[in-house]
From TrEMBL:
<keyword id="KW-0238">DNA-binding</keyword>
<dbReference type="GO" id="GO:0045982">
    <property type="term" value="P:negative regulation of purine nucleobase metabolic process"/>
</dbReference>
<dbReference type="Pfam" id="PF00156">
    <property type="entry name" value="Pribosyltran"/>
</dbReference>
<dbReference type="InterPro" id="IPR015265">
    <property type="entry name" value="PuR_N"/>
</dbReference>
<dbReference type="InterPro" id="IPR050118">
    <property type="entry name" value="Pur/Pyrimidine_PRTase"/>
</dbReference>
<protein>
    <submittedName>
        <fullName>Purine operon repressor, PurR</fullName>
    </submittedName>
</protein>
<keyword id="KW-0805">Transcription regulation</keyword>
<dbReference type="InterPro" id="IPR010078">
    <property type="entry name" value="PurR_Bsub"/>
</dbReference>
<dbReference type="InterPro" id="IPR036388">
    <property type="entry name" value="WH-like_DNA-bd_sf"/>
</dbReference>
<feature type="domain" description="Phosphoribosyltransferase">
    <location>
        <begin position="109"/>
        <end position="243"/>
    </location>
</feature>
<comment type="similarity">
    <text>Belongs to the purine/pyrimidine phosphoribosyltransferase family. PurR subfamily.</text>
</comment>
<feature type="domain" description="Bacterial purine repressor N-terminal">
    <location>
        <begin position="5"/>
        <end position="74"/>
    </location>
</feature>
<dbReference type="GO" id="GO:0003677">
    <property type="term" value="F:DNA binding"/>
</dbReference>
<keyword id="KW-0804">Transcription</keyword>
<dbReference type="InterPro" id="IPR000836">
    <property type="entry name" value="PRTase_dom"/>
</dbReference>
<dbReference type="Pfam" id="PF09182">
    <property type="entry name" value="PuR_N"/>
</dbReference>
<dbReference type="InterPro" id="IPR036390">
    <property type="entry name" value="WH_DNA-bd_sf"/>
</dbReference>
Amino acid sequence: MKKLKRSARLVEMTQYLTLNPHTLIPLTTFVERYGAAKSSISEDLAIIKEVCEGEETGELLTLAGAAGGVKYIPKYPSHKALPLIEQIGEQLKQPDRMLPGGYYYITDLLGQPGLMNDIGRMFASAFADSDIDCVMTVETKGIPIAYATAAHLNLPVVLVRRDHVVTEGSAVSINYVSGSHKSIHTMTLARRALKERSRVLLVDDFMRAGGTFKGMMDLLHEFDATVAGVGVLVESEDVSNEERLVQDYVSLIRVETVDARSKQMSVKPGNYFDHM
């Protein structure tokens, strides 16, 4: 039990809530933690709620009753989301990022913890109301996005591998066709990694036709699991709707047109704001 001044208590309560997102915390937890009256804790939570919602950094949901409590839902401020997405888009437009085969070098962006935290919070905001059990991605570049998103949703990460790892025990493997190059690849998932009938959020760094996402969806069928959502950092529009294998998804950045000769491209925000 800590005896703190109200100002210090507000700071620590806010930190406690942000470190435990999407978790129902009984008011008695704070009463016992700070040795304060329940009415004082309720007043503190009202202040935190007002600030969070006023700054658009999150929602504080209160559930009444004996089994009730408070739950913090992280949000990404809309007035900050667009400038950040536009900033990433400007970096993506750098000519030396264009690689053979229509790919783009974004590994340096994925290696920035602060940026990944923001991106993860954006996806957590977009899927805050979805019933999700875990976040899934395919190794390797989608891993930073998956962990950042899962942290803000307070969920585990499930990692699909390109090759079976013997230390993970028995696994389910499937072949899938890359939507962009029509080549066959393999992905595998340990049987112990995912519970059957789970609801899964799929995330990745880049999508053209969506072959990798479609492969993960087919893999989920083997576990009788459900796709609860799909999120991608960058999508390319150089495929037709008929070629695209995934239709329902949230993207942060959209590459519209690319001139391979001049290495110039047109980039705009994805459909993220359509889901907010």
